[in-house]
Each structure stands twice: as structure tokens, then as C-alpha cells.
Write a structure and sequence with these properties.
Helix content is 23%, strand content 19%. It is of the alpha+beta class and 103 residues long.
Amino acid sequence: MTSNHLPPEVRISPRVLAIFGAMTPNSTYGQGFGLGFAVRTETGRNPLPGSPGEYYWTGGTGTAFWIDPKESLIAVMMLQIPFVAFGHYYALMRNLVYQAIVA
């Protein structure tokens, strides 16, 4: 479920990319899609912090989770806001969580 199953030639519409940005399971952002989750496949292509092998999903009203096995990390965010405003809080939480990791 957490391995990429999208072939490389799959293209995402510009409208979807504009709405979801770095959360889009798209090779442009080093991500793919497994059998239920978006999956990070590459490092250095996504502006959001994370590790290859990480998988995540977001809900329509601000809920989200991600699991990063490399960092032994599970994060859950529960908001009730329109999706239009969600991207800001999602990026903020990801940045804060990864900045709190002490090596």
C-alpha cells in the first residue's frame, strides 16, 4: 500500500497542481500514489520536508496525517477549515514537526 503504483507517464492536470501544489502525488514533486496513500519517492523535489518512503493523506476539511518511517514519525493534524486555507497550515505543521526533530 505504501509503494508507488503510478507509471511515470501519468500526468496531472494543471488545475489539480494549482490547487494541491506540493501535496499532489506527482513525479514533479517526487511523489507517487500507492494503494491508498500518497507516497514520497524521491528527495529534493518537494518543498515540504520529509523522507523517501513517507506516506500521507489529507482530508477535505483540514484533517491530515503522515507517517515517515525513516524518522520513526507519525503526525496527525485535525482542523476544521475550508481546503482553500488548509495548505498554509499543513505546510506550517510539517515544517514545525521536522524542525523539532533532534538528531
